[in-house]
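Practice problem: predict the structure.
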Amino acid sequence: MNAIGTLTFFCGKMGAGKSTKARKLSLEKNTLLISEGEWLATLYPTEISSFDDYIKYSAILRPLMKTHVQKILLTGTNVVLDFPANTAKQRMWFKELCEEIKAGHNLIFIDVSDERCLEQISKRRIEQPKRAPFDTKEMFLYVSKHFEAPLEKEGLLFNVIN
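Answer:
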């Protein structure tokens, strides 16, 4: 029987660099990268025009993704999951995903200043013009209201990087 793979996922405010770190880590460690953004853009190319739309379609995607990722982990393949773990509720989803199949996990908390996040969002608006309507200071401030840094009492192993 194969060893079970490890799931790596990320926490950090909008613009902190979660997706960039996910791509870099998946290349460095030769692991499978699964991006929520790519799946949502492919499955719902015209349906997501607000943050509420994102919440709705992300919730539809998660049950399918949970089963899919668990099957991959059970083959012994490590997975980098570029889905936000920015609230305790979201992190519970990742924790349950791993616990149900006894997979290991690694939460990476990217803890950077709001100023740095906004700088990176501004740069991303230029590099990825399709994201420009969402990559605004107003959206950052709105989304940041819901952000919850991970706590030890959640029972997750996590590393903090700056």
